[in-house]
Write a structure and sequence with these properties.
3-stranded antiparallel β-sheet, 3 helices, elongated
Length: 138
Amino acid sequence: MTIQYVIDEALSLADEVGNEADYKEKIVRAINHVQAKISKFAKPIKKYVNLETENDILTMPEDFLSLVEVTDANGDLLAYDKIDVNKIKLESYGTYRVCYNTLLKDFIIEPNSDIDTAQEIGIEPIAEQCLIYGVAAE
């Protein structure tokens, strides 16, 4: 499914007539917003990464949605304190294996005038119609 397809379908559902350029940036923002909502109800997509702490603070990647677990080099689960939405505090400096839930297929679009509407949106097929109707409702 492409960005252009979502734009066309959302405008059709919303019965909007006019210049597509007037709606393009708003629709792109809506795609990001609705995708984040869908990802909270859809089956989570888990990612595993090795992250190194700054002092004893671990900052999550940009596509972070929620933390599943943190393990050490031996695979042992570690306790942590949540500092912020995307930061946790561990007992010491080091590299840790982090499992977290991410947004649908890592897809976030930067709204600007240079959006490639032929770009594919990598969401689960079952969520495609939810995305279109959610964007039209926005």
